[in-house]
Amino acid sequence: MLECSPAVLAGRVRECDRLLPRPGTVPSSALPTVPWAEFCDPTGPWLSRCAAEWQERGGFQHRRAGLVLVSFRFGWLAACATVPEFHLGAPVPVLRDLRVAVTAEGRLSALRPGTSQVVTARQWWQDLTEAFEPLTRALHELGGPPPGSHEYWGNPVGSVGTVLWRLQRAGLPGDAIATARELLTATGREHLLDIAPDRDPWPRRTTCCQWWRAGGGYCEECVLWNSASRRS
Prior knowledge:
mainly alpha; 9% strand
């Protein structure tokens, strides 16, 4: 844990709000929110519309791409909402009473987590898992991969490295690689994120989020960093 005054810690957390899409970056009154369980209902209007929005925005032919990208979006937002606090030693927002903000087009825009608390790495992962599992089951019911598929789970796990790399690049204090390794160990899914301290960027996903298929290019931590299509 990084030792500092409450005021300094609060300033560091605010800096994370500037760097990442975090709960405080979307005004609470700007969009309607729905309970997470309601969003994840495969028979309800929210989840299917969110997947359709990804399909439309990406112009995907294969329906699975939009479904997998829903898990990518949640995994990214969940990591952005919780990993910075864990790294900085601040109380971590919990996802137990989660609500989500959704645009009129169906886009999952922001998370509204519950009360923050000090947690261990294992508790952090358990909290995220309890939120993520209902989403994977629902996406499977809509035609996506099985709930345990790495196509889903590679998203929250891989996002851990991306978030911490961005904090490190911005100059925030602390050993980002050590935090990444601690959280990765807690996931029990170490094969989903490759960490090489001498590489820049040092985190590398080992699964694909599908977005490159839309012509949006490759993220710096993309699993396809050395693919033939990227080299060309």
